[in-house]
Amino acid sequence: MANLILILADQLTPSLSALEGADRDTDSIVMAEVHSEASYTNHHKKKLILLFSAMRHFASQLKADGYSVHYQRYHPDNTAQSLEQVMAEQIKAHQPERIITTECGEWRLHDIISQWHETLGVTTEIRPDTRFIATKQEFADWAEGRKQLRMEYFYREMRRKTGLLMTPEQKPEGGEWNTMPKTAANGRENRRRPRRSGSNRMPSPKKSSTWLRSTSATILAAATTSILR
Prior knowledge:
By secondary structure, this protein is of the alpha/beta class. Helices cover about 40% and strands about 10% of the residues. It contains 9 helices and 5 strands; from the N terminus they run E-E-H-H-E-H-E-H-H-E-H-H-H-H.
């Protein structure tokens, strides 16, 4: 039986775990620009343009690769205004055996998708996101029982696991894990907030009006030409 494979806006990768073992003849990929995801918080319009553009280009790539893709473009009058509503429509149309998706990087949406086996009445398979060095479960196992969760120590474990910036003897390249001052006092000083005044204050970021005008013009021009067609 066919599966529905949901791909989200930040999952535009051909090697995505949700696509592993996909059957081009029977499975259907679902991608959607929906009001609920575009408006649940304040998004810059240019950000939405770039996201939708990337989604549409990736959908076109999938179609060219032989996949069947259902793609919903954003419109205020769409009957489906959320991902759940889009999936409900596709379930009615295709009667799939299951929904397959890669775990999303946002707890709000993850909680919604985790309930689809009940709210939509279809088995929902949420696969790990293999694009990252560590899984959520790996971090949870490392954090269990610890009184302090400092990223520094988890970072070291990931370097040991992958061998990145490590010597063959499993020592950090250069002999040091990082450039953090060795003394406790200096370490605390290094982690303080930047000063807002005085000689050691953090400088304001440099702004290039020419770059800003050029970038804005490029994005806005793309939005009104072929990029979002």
